[in-house]
Inverse folding.
C-alpha cells in the first residue's frame, strides 16, 4: 500500500502540471484543460485524506462529488463561453482576446 | 422501501417551491401559446395539492404546535434561519391556496386572465400566477420573520405586474397605487420588526412568540440603551402600530383601504381573485401569527379603538358597496366589509378580558370566515369576469334579466351571493356566526352594531342580483361554459360542504387556536 | 497494489505532460482523457470505487466529449493545431512558476507527518452518501441541481444562437 | 326514545332531497319533477302522521311529553355546538299541518303551474321551502331554528320572484328578504344573547336544555329574559308580518298563487308565531315582553284589517287579512299562552290555504285577472270553487260553527280575561281591538266575495271562466272539509286541543257572552257589507261605496297608511346617503386628500432632494471622481487584459505566501 | 396392503422424489459455479499464488470465449431474421441453413488487407479499434448471468456499467478523427453527439430501478425483484406453484408502472446508444458512407463490428437484469438459461425493430432525445418516487400510470413535429 505522502506528492505534481498548462498554453480550451487537471489533482487529495483518515467523515468525499458536478457545469459553461468568444473574436487564442470592452 | 415519514422534512418546502419550478418550466413553451402555458401552469399549480393532501393526512390534529418544521441555518450571524412549518393557523389557508390557485389558473381563459388584450404575454401571466402562489405558500408557512417578509413581498411583486400588464384601462395608476400603498405598509412593518429584532436578538417568530409578554419591556430597554430615554415608554406602542399598519393595509382596514377598490377594479379577474381570495388573508394571518402573539399587551390596551376601526370597516365597507354602480366595485367593497368581520374577531380576542371559549370561538371563526370568504369572493369575481367577457363591462346599467337566457349562471351566482351574505347552510354563515358569537361574549355592544353589516350585505347583494338577473331581459347572452360551470361548481361544493359540516374545517385550527388563546391568557 | 500505484503514477504523469505539451490539440485532448482515466484508476486504488466510476462517467464520458466538440467547433477541423505557436509568449515564466509551485508544495508536504493507512480499507458508504445528499447537504445539492440546469440551458442557448446564425447565413 | 324521534330529521330531509334532485332536472322533465316533489312531501306527511301518533300515545306522555334527538355540529375550544330535533305536541301538530298543507298545495300546483316554462324549477323551490319549514318546526335548537328560518326566507325569496321578469316581482322578492332580515337582526342578536346566557342553544336536553331546569333560571336573571324575548320577537314580527315589518307580505303576492297559499298564508308566516310559542318559557319569564307581543298583535290585527277594506287585488285583500290574523295569533300568544295562538294558527292555516287556493283557481281560470273590479258572476261559472271559497270566508270571519269561530273565540276569551292577571289600564284595549278587527274582517270578506262571485262578469277573464281542473279542485275541497270540522277539536269546555298541546294548563274557561257577542257582531258586519255592496256597487265601472262616501279615508287605507313611503323617505334614503357618503369619503378625503396630499408632499420633497443633489453634492463628487480617474490611468499598465498574465502574478504571490508559511511554521512529525 | 415403492410408502416416496428433483435442479442450476469452485480448489492445492490468477481466468475466460461465439450466432440470427422480415432466405450457402456463414465471414476479414489511409493519424487510427473492444468486454463483467454467476460482483455494478460504457465514445471519436476523412469525422461526431444525448435518458431509466431497489449492485437488483411470498408448508402443489411463479415473476420491475415506461425508455435509448436502426445515422450509408468505420477494413473493421454486437448483448443483458428479473424465472429452467433466454428475446426485439423502422433524420433524432425522451424519463423518475412513497400500491399504480400516460400524451402534444422546417445539418 502506498503511503499518503506518495499520493500527495503525485497530486502536487499533477496540480503543477495542470498549472503549467494553464500558464503556458495559448489556446483557451487547453487552458481549460489545465484547470480540469488541477481540479482532478485536488480531488485525489481529498479522497486520499478520506482513505487515510476517519472513514466515517465523508465530507471530503461529498466535496469531491460536488466538485465533479461543478466541474461538469464549469466545463459546459466554459466551453459555451469559449465558443461565444470564438464567434466574437474569430479566434481561440488567449492573447488575442485581450480587449476588456465588448 | 424508505420509511414513509421521511418526506416530512421537506414537505412544506416542496409545496412552496413547486409552483416556482412550474414558472421556470413555462419557459419551455412559446410565450403566446396560452393553452400549453395554462396546462403546464395548471399542472405545476395543482401538483402541491397532492403534497397538501399528504400533509393533511399526516397532520396531527390534536397537537397545538407546529408540525412538519424544517429549520436550516441560513444567515447565522443575523439569527436568520430558513424555518418553515405548519400549524392549525396556517393549515386551512394552505389548503385554500392549494385549491383556489389551481382553480383560478384552470379558469383563466381569455378575459379572465386579461389575455384578450395581451394574447402575446400568456406565458408571463401564468408565470406570475405561479410565483404568486409560491409567495402565498411561503407567507403561510414561514416561521422566521426575515424570509417570511421575503415571501410577503414576493407575493406583492407578481401582483403588481399582473395588474400592470393585464389590467383594465386604468391599470397603470392602479398598480402603482397598489404597490406604493402596500409597500409603505410593509416598510413600516419591516422597520417595526427590525426594532423588535434589535431588542430581542431573534427573527424567529416562534422564539418571539415564546417571549411574548417580555417584548414591550425589551423594546423599552432597547430604546433606553441607545439613548432614547424619552422614547422608551412609547416604544412598544410605536412598534406595535408600525407592524399593525403593514397588516392593516393588506387586509385592508378602514381607512387604509382605498387602494383596494381601484386595484380590484383594474386587475385582471384572475389577479383580483388571488387578491381577494388569498392575499387579503395574508394580512389577517399576519395578525394571528405575528401581532397577537408578539404584541398581546399592546393590543389589549388598544382593543376598543381597534374594534371600532373594524366596525367601521364592516359598516362603511357595506354601505359603500351598496353605492357602487358596477359589480366589481361591489365585490371589492364587500371584500372590505367581510374581512372587517375577521378583523373584528382578531381585535376582540386581543382584548385582555374574556372567556377562553369565546376567544377560541372567535378565532376559529376568523379562520373559518377566511376560507369561506375565499371561496365565495373567488366565485363572485370569477362571475364578474364572466359577465365582463360577455358584455364588455359589468355596470348595472347595461345588464338585467340575465336569468332568462342564462339560468345556470343565475343559479350559481345566486348561490355564491347567498353564501357571501351568510345564508345558513353555506359556509359564510358558520364563519360569521362563530365570530359574532365569540365577539358578542367579548364585546357585546360592538357585536350588536356589527350585526347591521349582515343586513347591509344582504341589501347590496340582493340589489346586485336583482339588477343583473331579474327584471325584463335587456341583453341576450350565452349561459356558462363548461369550464365556468366546473369552477363555480367546485367553489359551491366547498361552500355547501363546510356550511353543512363545519367540523372538519374547524378541527384543523382548533388545537392551535386553543393553545394561542391560552397563551394570550 | 504498489505495482499498480507505480504504473498509474507513470500513466497519469505521462498523460498529463502530454496533455499540456503536445502541439496537436486533439492529441492533447486524448491525452487528457487518458489522464482522467488515470485519475479514476487512482481513485480505485484509494478504494473509492464509486467516485472512480463517477469520474469515468463524468470526465471521460461527458467532459472530454465537450472538450473535443469545442476543439472541433472553434477550429477548422481539417487543420487542427498543426500550425502556429501552441504556447503563449510568457511560456518560460509559466513553466518556472509551476515548477516553483511543485517545489513549494513538495517542501511543505515533506515537513508534514502523515498517518499510516488504516487496514482494512474503509468501504465508501454509497447509500450513506445518497442519504446525506438529501438531508445534511440538501441545500448544496439543490444548488448544484440548479447550477447544472442553468449550465444546460446556457449551453443550449449558445447552440440556438448558433443555429440562428446559420439560418441567417443561408 | 322511539324510532320516529330518532329519525325526525328524515321529515325535513325528504323534501330537501327532492329539491336537490329536481334542481338537476332539465326543464322538460315536468312530470318527473312533480312526481319527485310529491313523493317527497307525501312521505314527509306520512312520517308526520307517525310522529303525531307517537305524541298521542300514552308512552310518550309517560316519557315526559317530549323526545329530543341531539347531535354535535362542531367543536371549538372545548365546547361543542349541538343541534337537535325535538318531538313534542307543538312540533307534531306543526309538522302535521305544514306537511298536509304542503302536500295539498303541491297537488294544486300541478294544475296551476301547468303552463309555466319553469315548472320543474317551481317544484324544486317548493320542496326546498317545505323542507326548510319542516326543519324549522322540528328543530330543538334556536340555532337550528335560525338556520331553517333563513332557508325559509331564501325559499320565499325565490318563490316570490318566480316570475322574475316582472319588475314588480323582482322588487317584491328583494323586499321580502330584506324586511324580514331587519327582524332577523334582532333575532340574531337574541340568538347570541340566548346562547351566551344559557350556554347552549338546545331547548331540551335531558334537563340541560336552555328551556328547562337550571339554564332557564340562569336566563331569568336580570333583564336577560326580556331582552332575549323582545329580540327574538323582532324576528318573529318580521317573518309574521307584524307592524311595522308587515310591508313585505302584501307585495309578496307577486309570486304564483300556490306560493301565496303555502308561504304567505298557511305556513311560513306562521313561523314567527311558532317561534314565540316555542320560546314561550322565556316569554313567560317576562310579562313586559308578553305585553309587547299582545299589544303589537292586537294593533296589527286591527290595522291590517282596515287596510284590507280598501284593496282591489283579490290576493292582496287576503294578504292583509293574513297580516291581521297573524296579529290575532300574536295576541293570543300574548294574552293566553301557547294554546290559543297555536290553535288559531292551525285553523287559520287550513282556511287561509283554502281561500288562497280558491283565489288561485279563480285567477287561473280568469286568465290571471286579479282585480276584483274586473271579476264578478263567478258563482254560476265556478260553483264548486264558490262553495269552498264561501266556506273558507266563513271560517275566516269566525262564523259558527266553522273552525275560525272556535279559535278566534278562544283568543277573544283570553283577551277578555287578560286584565285579570295584568293590572294595567291598557290591558283592556287588545280585546276591543280584536273585536273591531273581527268586525272589519267580516266586512272586507263579504265585500270581496260580493265583488268576485256575485253580479255580472265585468271583465273578459271572468266572462270566460270555467270550473277548475281536478288537480286544483281536489285540494280545495279537501281543505274546505277540514275547515268545516277542524274547529271542533277545540270545542269550548271539551278542548281536546288544549289537552293535547298543554295538558297541565287549565285553559281560560268559557265566557259564554263572548261567542255570542262576536257572532252577532260578525253577522252584523256581513249584513252591513251585503247591503253596502249591493247590486249598484257591483255594476261595471261603479266606484267603491266607501270611496264615494269617504274619499280621504279610502285613499289613506288604499295607500296602506303610506308606511312604505315613510320607510322610503327615511330609512332607505338614509341608507343611500350613507353609501354615497362612504363612497365620497373614500374618493375625496382618503384617496384625494390623504393619499393625494401625501404624494404631493413626497414629490415636493423629492424635488428639493433633486436640487440638492444636482447643485450641491454632485459638484464635489464629480471632482473627486475626476481625481480617481487620473489615478486609474497609472494602474492601467498592470491591466493588460491577458488572463494568463494575471494568473501568473496571482500564482507568484501565492507561491510567495505559501513559501513563507512553510518556512515559518514549525516542522511537524518526522 | 398399501402400495409400496422401493420399500417406501407413497407419501415418503414422493417426498424423496421431490428432494431428488430439487437437488438435480440445484446441480444443473449451479453447474458452472461448481465447476469454477473445482478449478479454484485445484489451483489452491497446486500453489497458493495460483489461486488469484485462476480466479481472474475464471472470470475472464468464459466471457472471452462465450461472447465472441455469441457474436457470431447473433450476426447469423440477425441476418436470418431480417431476411425473414424482408421475405427472403438470408444466408443459406455455408453450412446447414447458413450456420457456418459467420465462420466464413471471420475468415474473410482475417485475410483481407489492412488499409491505413496515407495521411491518417496512424497511432490513433490503430488504437481506436482496440479501445472500442475494451468497454464492450468490461461491461459484461458486472452482469449476473445466473445465480452466483457474476464475474465481478461490484457494489456499484450499474454505475460501473455506464461508466465503462462511456469509454466507447472516445474510441468512436478516435476512429473518426484518426481516419482523416471528412465522412469518418462527421460520422464520429454524429455518433458521439447521439451517444451523449441518449446516455441521459438511458441512465435515468436505469436510475429508477436503482432508486426502487436501493442498491447499485446488479446482483442485489436481481434479488430485489424476487417477491417473498410464503405458503404454508403443508399446502398443495398448486398454491406452491403459484407462489413460486409469483415469487420469481411477480417482482419484475417491468410489472410496475414506472418499470414499463422505464423499460421502454431504456430500450429506445439503448438502441440509440448502440447506433442501431432506427438510430443508425452515424453510419447511415446513404449520407456518410459508413461513418467512423469508413476507413477501416479487415480485422480492424471486424473488431468494430464485434464490439457493436457484444455491446448489444450487454445492453440487452442489463435490460434483462434491471427490468426483467435477471436470471429469476420459474423452475425448471436453470437461472442462466433464463438469463440468456431474456437476452435473446430482447435481441430478437431489437432485430425486429431494425427490420421494421425507417432511419430517423439527424435533427429528429436530437429533438427526440432532448425534447421527448429526457423529460419523459425525468417524469419517470418522479413516477418511481411516487411508487416508493405512496403507501397504497393500487394508488401508486393508478397515479404512476396516469402520470406516465399524461406525460406521454402531454409531450406528444407539446413536441408535435408540426410542419417540417428547413433542415440544418451542423456536421454535414
Amino acid at each position: 500500500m502506498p503511503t499518503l505522502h506518495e499520493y500527495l506528492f503525485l497530486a502536487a505534481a499533477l496540480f503543477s502540471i495542470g498549472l503549467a498548462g494553464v500558464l503556458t498554453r495559448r489556446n483557451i480550451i487547453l487552458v481549460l484543460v489545465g484547470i480540469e487537471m488541477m481540479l482532478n489533482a485536488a480531488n485525489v487529495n481529498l479522497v486520499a485524506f478520506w482513505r487515510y483518515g476517519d472513514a466515517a467523515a465523508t465530507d471530503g468525499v461529498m466535496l469531491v462529488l460536488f466538485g465533479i458536478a461543478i466541474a461538469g457545469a464549469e466545463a459546459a459553461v466554459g466551453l459555451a463561453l469559449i465558443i461565444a468568444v470564438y464567434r466574437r473574436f474569430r479566434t481561440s487564442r488567449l492573447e488575442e482576446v485581450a480587449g476588456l470592452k465588448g | 422501501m424508505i420509511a414513509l415519514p421521511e418526506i416530512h422534512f421537506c414537505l412544506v418546502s416542496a409545496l412552496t417551491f413547486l409552483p416556482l419550478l412550474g414558472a421556470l418550466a413555462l419557459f419551455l413553451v412559446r410565450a403566446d401559446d396560452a393553452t400549453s402555458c395554462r396546462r403546464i401552469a395548471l399542472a405545476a399549480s395543482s401538483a402541491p395539492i397532492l403534497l397538501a393532501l399528504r400533509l393533511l393526512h399526516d397532520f396531527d390534529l390534536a397537537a397545538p404546535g407546529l408540525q412538519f418544521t424544517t429549520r436550516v441555518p441560513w444567515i447565522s450571524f443575523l439569527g436568520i434561519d430558513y424555518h418553515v412549518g405548519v400549524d392549525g393557523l396556517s393549515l386551512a389557508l394552505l389548503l385554500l391556496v392549494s385549491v383556489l390557485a389551481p382553480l383560478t389558473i384552470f379558469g383563466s381563459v381569455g378575459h379572465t386572465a386579461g389575455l384578450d388584450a395581451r394574447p402575446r404575454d400568456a406565458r408571463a401571466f401564468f408565470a406570475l400566477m405561479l410565483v404568486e402562489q409560491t409567495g402565498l405558500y411561503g407567507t403561510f408557512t414561514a416561521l422566521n420573520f426575515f424570509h417570511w417578509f421575503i415571501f410577503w413581498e414576493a407575493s406583492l411583486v407578481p401582483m403588481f405586474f399582473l395588474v400592470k400588464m393585464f389590467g383594465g384601462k386604468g391599470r397603470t395608476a392602479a398598480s402603482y397605487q397598489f404597490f406604493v400603498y402596500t409597500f409603505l405598509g410593509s416598510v413600516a412593518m419591516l422597520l417595526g420588526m427590525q426594532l423588535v429584532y434589535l431588542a430581542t436578538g431573534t427573527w424567529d417568530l416562534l422564539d418571539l412568540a415564546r417571549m411574548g409578554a417580555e417584548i414591550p419591556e425589551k423594546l423599552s430597554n432597547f430604546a433606553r440603551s441607545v439613548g432614547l430615554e424619552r422614547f422608551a415608554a412609547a416604544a412598544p406602542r410605536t412598534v406595535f402600530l408600525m407592524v399593525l399598519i403593514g397588516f392593516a393595509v393588506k387586509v385592508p382596514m378602514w381607512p387604509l383601504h382605498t387602494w383596494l377598490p381601484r386595484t380590484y377594479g383594474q386587475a385582471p379577474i384572475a389577479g383580483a381573485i388571488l387578491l381577494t381570495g388569498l392575499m387579503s388573508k395574508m394580512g389577517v394571518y399576519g395578525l394571528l401569527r405575528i401581532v397577537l402573539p408578539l404584541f398581546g399587551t399592546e393590543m389589549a390596551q388598544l382593543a376598543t379603538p381597534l374594534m371600532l376601526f373594524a366596525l367601521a370597516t364592516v359598516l362603511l365597507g357595506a354601505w359603500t358597496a351598496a353605492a357602487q354602480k358596477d359589480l366589481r366595485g361591489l365585490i371589492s367593497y364587500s371584500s372590505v366589509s367581510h374581512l372587517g368581520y375577521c378583523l373584528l374577531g382578531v381585535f376582540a380576542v386581543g382584548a385582555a378580558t374574556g372567556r377562553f371559549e369565546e376567544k377560541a370561538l372567535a378565532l376559529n371563526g376568523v379562520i373559518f370566515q377566511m376560507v369561506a370568504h375565499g371561496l365565495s369572493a373567488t366565485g363572485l369575481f370569477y362571475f364578474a369576469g364572466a359577465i365582463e367577457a360577455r358584455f364588455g363591462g359589468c355596470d348595472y346599467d347595461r345588464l338585467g334579466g340575465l336569468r332568462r337566457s342564462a339560468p345556470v349562471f343565475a343559479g350559481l351566482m345566486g348561490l355564491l351571493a347567498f353564501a357571501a351574505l351568510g345564508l345558513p347552510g353555506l359556509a359564510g354563515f358558520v364563519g360569521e356566526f362563530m365570530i359574532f358569537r365569540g365577539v358578542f361574549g367579548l364585546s357585546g355592544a360592538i357585536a350588536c352594531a356589527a350585526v347591521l353589516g349582515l343586513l347591509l350585505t344582504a341589501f347590496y347583494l340582493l340589489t346586485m342580483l336583482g339588477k343583473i338577473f331579474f327584471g325584463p331581459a335587456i341583453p341576450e347572452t350565452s349561459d356558462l361554459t363548461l369550464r365556468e360551470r366546473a369552477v363555480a361548481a367546485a367553489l359551491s361544493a366547498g361552500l355547501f360542504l363546510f356550511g353543512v359540516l363545519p367540523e372538519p374545517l374547524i378541527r384543523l385550527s382548533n388545537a392551535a387556536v386553543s393553545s394561542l388563546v391560552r397563551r394570550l391568557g | 497494489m504498489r505495482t499498480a500505484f507505480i504504473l498509474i503514477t507513470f500513466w497519469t504523469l505521462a498523460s498529463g505532460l502530454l496533455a499540456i505539451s503536445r502541439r496537436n490539440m486533439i492529441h492533447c485532448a486524448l491525452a487528457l482523457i487518458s489522464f482522467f482515466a488515470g485519475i479514476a484508476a487512482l481513485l480505485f486504488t484509494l478504494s473509492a470505487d464509486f467516485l472512480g466510476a463517477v469520474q469515468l462517467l463524468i470526465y471521460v464520458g461527458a467532459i472530454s466529449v465537450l472538450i473535443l466538440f469545442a476543439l472541433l467547433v472553434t477550429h477548422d477541423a481539417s487543420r487542427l493545431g498543426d500550425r502556429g505557436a501552441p504556447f503563449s509568449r510568457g511560456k518560460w515564466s509559466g513553466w518556472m512558476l509551476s515548477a516553483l509551485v511543485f517545489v513549494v508544495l513538495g517542501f511543505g508536504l515533506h515537513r508534514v507527518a502523515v498517518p499510516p493507512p488504516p487496514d482494512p480499507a474503509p468501504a465508501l458508504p454509497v447509500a450513506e452518501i445518497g442519504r446525506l445528499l438529501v438531508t445534511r447537504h440538501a441545500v448544496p445539492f439543490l444548488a448544484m441541481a440548479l447550477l447544472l440546469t442553468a449550465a444546460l440551458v446556457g449551453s443550449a442557448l449558445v447552440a440556438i444562437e448558433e443555429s440562428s446564425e446559420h439560418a441567417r447565413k443561408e | 326514545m322511539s324510532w320516529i324521534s330518532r329519525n325526525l330529521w328524515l321529515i325535513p330531509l325528504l323534501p330537501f332531497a327532492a329539491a336537490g334532485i329536481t334542481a338537476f332536472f332539465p326543464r322538460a322533465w315536468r312530470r318527473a319533477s312533480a312526481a319527485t316533489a310529491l313523493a317527497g312531501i307525501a312521505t314527509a306527511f306520512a312520517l308526520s302522521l307517525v310522529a303525531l301518533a307517537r305524541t298521542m300515545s300514552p308512552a310518550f306522555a309517560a316519557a315526559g311529553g317530549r323526545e329530543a334527538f341531539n347531535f354535535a355540529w362542531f367543536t371549538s375550544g372545548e365546547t361543542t355546538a349541538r343541534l337537535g330535533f325535538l318531538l313534542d305536541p307543538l312540533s307534531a301538530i306543526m309538522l302535521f299541518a305544514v306537511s298536509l298543507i304542503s302536500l295539498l298545495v303541491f297537488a294544486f300546483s300541478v294544475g296551476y303551474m301547468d303552463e309555466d316554462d319553469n315548472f320543474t324549477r317551481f317544484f324544486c323551490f317548493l320542496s326546498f321551502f317545505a323542507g326548510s319549514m319542516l326543519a324549522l318546526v322540528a328543530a330543538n335548537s334556536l340555532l337550528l331554528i335560525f338556520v331553517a328560518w333563513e332557508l325559509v326566507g331564501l325559499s320565499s325569496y325565490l318563490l316570490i320572484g318566480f316570475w322574475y321578469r316582472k319588475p314588480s316581482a323582482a322588487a317584491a322578492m328583494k323586499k321580502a328578504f330584506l324586511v324580514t332580515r331587519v327582524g332577523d337582526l334582532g333575532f340574531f342578536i337574541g340568538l347570541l344573547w340566548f346562547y351566551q346566557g344559557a350556554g347552549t342553544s338546545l331547548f331540551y336536553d335531558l334537563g340541560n336544555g336552555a328551556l328547562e331546569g337550571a339554564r332557564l333560571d340562569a336566563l331569568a336573571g336580570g333583564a336577560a329574559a326580556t331582552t332575549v324575548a323582545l329580540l327574538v320577537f323582532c324576528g318573529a314580527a318580521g317573518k309574521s308580518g307584524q307592524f311595522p315589518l308587515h310591508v313585505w307580505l302584501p307585495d309578496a303576492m307577486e309570486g304564483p298563487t300556490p306560493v301565496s297559499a303555502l308561504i304567505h298564508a298557511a305556513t311560513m308566516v306562521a313561523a314567527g308565531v311558532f317561534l314565540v310559542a316555542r320560546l314561550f318559557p322565556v316569554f313567560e319569564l317576562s310579562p313586559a315582553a308578553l305585553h309587547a307581543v299582545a299589544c303589537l298583535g292586537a294593533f296589527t290585527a286591527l290595522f291590517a284589517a282596515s287596510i284590507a277594506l280598501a284593496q282591489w287585488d283579490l290576493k292582496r285583500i287576503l294578504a292583509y287579512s293574513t297580516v291581521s290574523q297573524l296579529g290575532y295569533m300574536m295576541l293570543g300568544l300574548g294574552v293566553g299562552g301557547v294554546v290559543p295562538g297555536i290553535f288559531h294558527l292551525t285553523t287559520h292555516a287550513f282556511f287561509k290555504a283554502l281561500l288562497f287556493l280558491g283565489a288561485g283557481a279563480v285567477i287561473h281560470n280568469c286568465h290571471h285577472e286579479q282585480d276584483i273590479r274586473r271579476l264578478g258572476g263567478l258563482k254560476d261559472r265556478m260553483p264548486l270553487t264558490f262553495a269552498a271559497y264561501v266556506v273558507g270566508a266563513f271560517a275566516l270571519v269566525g262564523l259558527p260553527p266553522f273552525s275560525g269561530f272556535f279559535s278566534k273565540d278562544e283568543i277573544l276569551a283570553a283577551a277578555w280575561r287578560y286584565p285579570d292577571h295584568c293590572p294595567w289600564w291598557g290591558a283592556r284595549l287588545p280585546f276591543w281591538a280584536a273585536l273591531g278587527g273581527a268586525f272589519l274582517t267580516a266586512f272586507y270578506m263579504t265585500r270581496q266575495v260580493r265583488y268576485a262571485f256575485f253580479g255580472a262578469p265585468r271583465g273578459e277573464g271572468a266572462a270566460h271562466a270555467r270550473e277548475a281542473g281536478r288537480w286544483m279542485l281536489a285540494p280545495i275541497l279537501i281543505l274546505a272539509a277540514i275547515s268545516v270540522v277542524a274547529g271542533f277539536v277545540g270545542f269550548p269546555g271539551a278542548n281536546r286541543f288544549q289537552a293535547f298541546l298543554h295538558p297541565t294548563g287549565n285553559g281560560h274557561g268559557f265566557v259564554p257572552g263572548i261567542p255570542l257577542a262576536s257572532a252577532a257582531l260578525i253577522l252584523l258586519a256581513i249584513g252591513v257589507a251585503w247591503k253596502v255592496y249591493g247590486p249598484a256597487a257591483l255594476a261595471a265601472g261603479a266606484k267603491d261605496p266607501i270611496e264615494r262616501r269617504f274619499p280621504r279615508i279610502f285613499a289613506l287605507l288604499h295607500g296602506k297608511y303610506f308606511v312604505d313611503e315613510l320607510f322610503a323617505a327615511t330609512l332607505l334614503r338614509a341608507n343611500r346617503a350613507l353609501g354615497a357618503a362612504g363612497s365620497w369619503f373614500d374618493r375625496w378625503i382618503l384617496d384625494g386628500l390623504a393619499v393625494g396630499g401625501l404624494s404631493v408632499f413626497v414629490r415636493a420633497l423629492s424635488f428639493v432632494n433633486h436640487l440638492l443633489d444636482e447643485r450641491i453634492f454632485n459638484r464635489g463628487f464629480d471632482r473627486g471622481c475626476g481625481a480617481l480617474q487620473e489615478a486609474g490611468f497609472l494602474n492601467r499598465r498592470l491591466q493588460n487584459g491577458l488572463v494568463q498574465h494575471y494568473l501568473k502574478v496571482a500564482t507568484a504571490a501565492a507561491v510567495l505566501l505559501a513559501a513563507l508559511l512553510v518556512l515559518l511554521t514549525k516542522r511537524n512529525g518526522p | 396392503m398399501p402400495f409400496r415403492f422401493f420399500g417406501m410408502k407413497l407419501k415418503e416416496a414422493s417426498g424423496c422424489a421431490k428432494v431428488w428433483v430439487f437437488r438435480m435442479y440445484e446441480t444443473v442450476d449451479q453447474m458452472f459455479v461448481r465447476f469454477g469452485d473445482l478449478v479454484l480448489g485445484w489451483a489452491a492445492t497446486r500453489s497458493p499464488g495460483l489461486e488469484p490468477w485462476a480466479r481472474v481466468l475464471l472470470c475472464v475466460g468464459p466471457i472471452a470465449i462465450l461472447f465472441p461465439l455469441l457474436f457470431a450466432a447473433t450476426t447469423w440470427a440477425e441476418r436470418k431474421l431480417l431476411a425473414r422480415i424482408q421475405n427472403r432466405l438470408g444466408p443459406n450457402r455455408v453450412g446447414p441453413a447458413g450456420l457456418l456463414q459467420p465462420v466464413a465471414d471471420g475468415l474473410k476479414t482475417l485475410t483481407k488487407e489492412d488499409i491505413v489511409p496515407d495521411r491518417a493519424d496512424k497511432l490513433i487510427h490503430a488504437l481506436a479499434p482496440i479501445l472500442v473492444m475494451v468497454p464492450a468486454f468490461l461491461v459484461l463483467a458486472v452482469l449476473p448471468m445466473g445465480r452466483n454467476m457474476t464475474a465481478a460482483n461490484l457494489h456499484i455494478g450499474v454505475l460501473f456499467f455506464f461508466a465503462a460504457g462511456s469509454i466507447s465514445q472516445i474510441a468512436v471519436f478516435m476512429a473518426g478523427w484518426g481516419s482523416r476523412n471528412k465522412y469518418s469525422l462527421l460520422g464520429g461526431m454524429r455518433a458521439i453527439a447521439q451517444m451523449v444525448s441518449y446516455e441521459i435518458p438511458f441512465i435515468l431509466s436505469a436510475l429508477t430501478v436503482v432508486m426502487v431497489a436501493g442498491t447499485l449492485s446488479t446482483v442485489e437488483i436481481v434479488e430485489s425483484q424476487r417477491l417473498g411470498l410464503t405458503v404454508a408448508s403443508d399446502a398443495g402443489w398448486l398454491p406452491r406453484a403459484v407462489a413460486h411463479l409469483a415469487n420469481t415473476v411477480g417482482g419484475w420491475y417491468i410489472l410496475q408502472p414506472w418499470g414499463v415506461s422505464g423499460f421502454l425508455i431504456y430500450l429506445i435509448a439503448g438502441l440509440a446508444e448502440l447506433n442501431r436502426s432506427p438510430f443508425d445515422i452515424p453510419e447511415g450509408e446513404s449520407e456518410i458512407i459508413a461513418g467512423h468505420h469508413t476507413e477501416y477494413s479487415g480485422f480492424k473493421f471486424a473488431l468494430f463490428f464485434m464490439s457493436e454486437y457484444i455491446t448489444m448483448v450487454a445492453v440487452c443483458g442489463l435490460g434483462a437484469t434491471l427490468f426483467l428479473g435477471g436470471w429469476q424465472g420459474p423452475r425448471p429452467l436453470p437461472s442462466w438459461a433464463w438469463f440468456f433466454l431474456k437476452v435473446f428475446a430482447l435481441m430478437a426485439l431489437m432485430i425486429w425493430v431494425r427490420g421494421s423502422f425507417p432511419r430517423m433524420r439527424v435533427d429528429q433524432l436530437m429533438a427526440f432525445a432532448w425534447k421527448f425522451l429526457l423529460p419523459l424519463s425525468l417524469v419517470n423518475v418522479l413516477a418511481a418516487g411516487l411508487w416508493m412513497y405512496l403507501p397504497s400500491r393500487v394508488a401508486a399504480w393508478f397515479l404512476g400510470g396516469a402520470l406516465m400516460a399524461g406525460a406521454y400524451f402531454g409531450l406528444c402534444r407539446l413536441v408535435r413535429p408540426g410542419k417540417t422546417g428547413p433542415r440544418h445539418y451542423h456536421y454535414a
